[in-house]
Amino acid sequence: MPIRRFGGHRSLVSQSPRLSYGYKKMNVSRSGYRVFSANSTTACTELAKKITERLGVELGKSVVYQESNTETRVDVKESVRGQDIFIIQTIPRDVNTAIMELLVMAYALKTSCAKNIIGVIPYFPYSKQCKMRKRGSIVCKLLTSMLAKAGLTHIITMDLHQKEIQGFFSFPVDNLRASPFLIQYIQEEIPDYRNAIIVAKSPSAAKRAQSYAERLRLGLAVMHGEAHHSESDMADGRNSPPLFRTTTGHTGLELPSSSRHHVPFPGIELPMMMAKEKPPITVVGDVGGRIAIIIDDIIDDVEDFVAAAEILKERGAYKIYIMATHGLLSAEAPRLIEESAIDEVVVTNTVPHEVQKLQCPKIKTVDVSMILAEAIRRIHNGESMAYLFRNIAVDD
User: Looking at domain 180-227+281-366, does it have CATH number 3.40.50.2020?
Assistant: First the structure.
């Protein structure tokens, strides 16, 4: 029986590992994760660069561009095998292109054998389409299914329009909050904020506004009545069927005797549904001689905010601030804000809005890259996320 000799061999435990076949060591992060931006435009990569600077890593090398026929193409320029990959995607005005960029990049990383693919999507698109409207569809649910199919295994987002959207996902979701940053801005940048009052633009926003008011130890006012129909009016399809229905003859359907008593008799009219009539805009709460701070999660079309500011001015508020997480600021929003009674609009940098800031100096930005970077670090290291949600109310 041959004798195996071990004495002549050097121990490999103390030596640093080498790559076989003469290949050089690949340019990967020491801690085994990489951060990529799913958009190559300057405005959209700004947040990604701030996050990577806080993490102390380089932004992953990739190219995202549109073909001449507008197809999206993604080229990943380095190895991602066996690593945790974080894709940062901010949503510019071209929402659908941004979604395709995210999907194509996630699938490219999946086929490149990435270990985990985590999407960092501060503003989740289509979040307002999370309820059934007449004969429409729940587009938000469709988008979550597409992200899962593309290869995403985790999502980091911020202030979802409805918290119940988390139930649409088949993988973990961390819904971070921007309220600590906005509250800090109120305390540090608004003079005499103790004389302020938190305002909910509609009853549906009252819970969020109440959370701010309780932490700032301020009063709360709620505005009721709107010039336009709110999104909740048409959300459940209750205006879809006719207001009443008359049965004039036999339908030809024979039902079991046990269920016949549930069907109206021929010729009987069903009760007519009364149409909603919203009252004129009123303010529940005293805003006279105070600073009014309107709280919301998204500011897009600003007509409702401008109308609310006019009412608050009439009621005696001498300064009006608007605080929102996501500043989409579509269409003529900068011009309308500049010409309105609004003194300042404060939003975070979850959505690029540098062009709008140039058009309207009233728009201010709060940086939230710190909490996004910390979430990335904790997820990669397997640490608890509870620290990021300390002192956060359920209604935030």
Answer: yes
